[in-house]
Specification:
elongated; Rossmann fold; 2 domains; N-(1-d-carboxylethyl)-l-norvaline Dehydrogenase, domain 2; 10 helices; homodimer
């Protein structure tokens, strides 16, 4: 397919590379900064522009992969002269209907992207939806050229999926960060010692649900340990509050199940 | 070494197996339930007892691996007739001094143990301390027969290490559980779709600190997305509160750094 890629951030960069490697032609790359546009253009063997008015008028597909906050304005700015084109965005938490096009859709590859890290797209689940049936076929086939796992998901459910991803990625990562801070403050043990524990926590999820896999003082409601640990956090109220709330959440969930 | 193992729970079972496989002799296994004692005894090719008064009086090392809550009473009950023996416990959050023996110590293998899962002890970090120098040598050599990573750590710092482990394991796992609940409630997407995201979140930690690796709406302080996601959680105040507090924590940490 001939694709115009709007955006040159982490997601656009990784997605562009995956499309390019799957044999698609990136007809043009747009970024609002010349340097980013040029850098990604050269990676994708593609013309580029930093001027929205110079974006191509025709392609098999326009993919808008920009920050959520500017997505509506970028989409609106592209409307004129492209009313009949097929536009998708890549934002997990945003409705398909933010796109002012009849042929519109969403292509959400659920992953955390970092420019410096190469990502294996074939294992990333894609969640897609479109306004029209034939465009669904187009987007579905395109997704399958990059990933083995493609689900149709409407905007309402996708917003919950994205929220679940925030818990599983951002919030779990913040738990790691709090652990790292505690280690840095006491005994100067390198964070690397945590990796076998973290890896095992994740490995269990292939065998058990997270609820089944839960261990530790909160699930046993071992108030001796919990009180002592809360004391260790006195003077760090942010962590102490999170400790309390997470412990209560673990406990409440166990009680709900029983 | 000839070792008496007090306890037959998850940790005792996994530790006993690791000791046995490293060529040590489990002289006896004790558990307060006959079935557990017998089951572990047969795995470790070892005599067993469910009667504390029948525990051996002499061994190179006594390892008490029981629930934190019963550790003090079990240790006290074993004192008489074993005053000169070398006792260690395996509890990350409990002081060495809970053991009423002159020769005392701690052998804390930091991992989450599940009976049904085999654990590779060689990658698990061990944290040890002892009351005496020569006993430190004994415990250090023993640990190195099981693990490649052995640190000396005093009780005060070990309590923070254990607390860090609670954040990295229990609380991260509760984040996975909340994600799983959201998926179950909306769209019926299997939790397995989260695994590539979760794996990538962990894989980044080999390259970046958790703070550097952080992504998502909170670190960008994208209040549009955050407000929408809070709305999605209305009616689930436990998760909503955690959402708010974790987001604030991510934000505060970034500000502290700058």
């Amino acid at each position: 397919m001939e694709i115009v890629l709007i955006g040159a951030g982490n997601l656009a960069t990784n997605l562009g590379k995956a499309l390019f490697q799957s044999g698609h032609v990136i007809k043009q790359v747009y970024s609002h900064t010349e340097d980013s546009a040029s850098a990604l253009g050269s990676k994708l063997n593609s013309p580029y522009t930093a001027d929205l008015t110079q974006v191509e008028k025709k392609a098999d597909l326009f993919i808008i992969a920009v920050k959520d906050s500017v997505l509506p304005s970028v989409a609106s700015a592209l409307k004129e002269g492209r009313e009949q084109q097929f536009f998708v965005h890549t934002a997990g938490s945003i409705s398909m209907d933010v796109l002012p096009f009849e042929r519109r859709g969403v292509l959400y590859p659920m992953q955390t992207f970092t420019k410096e890290r190469k990502v294996d797209f074939s294992v990333i689940p894609f969640f897609i939806e479109t306004s029209g049936k034939s465009d669904y076929g187009i987007l579905h086939r395109l997704s399958l050229t990059m990933s083995d796992t493609v689900y149709e998901l409407n905007t309402a459910d996708r917003q919950y999926l994205h929220l679940a991803a925030v818990f599983c990625n951002n919030f779990a990562n913040h738990c790691y960060n709090m652990g790292a801070q505690l280690l840095k403050q006491h005994g100067d043990i390198p964070f690397a010692v945590m990796m076998p524990l973290i890896e095992e926590t994740v490995a269990k999820l292939y065998q058990f649900t997270p609820a089944e896999a839960q261990t530790g003082p909160a699930v046993r409601w071992d108030t001796n340990v919990m009180d002592r640990q809360m004391d260790l956090l006195s003077g760090q109220n942010d962590m102490k509050n999170i400790y309390q709330m997470m412990s209560q959440g673990i406990r409440d969930y166990q009680n709900k199940k029983e």
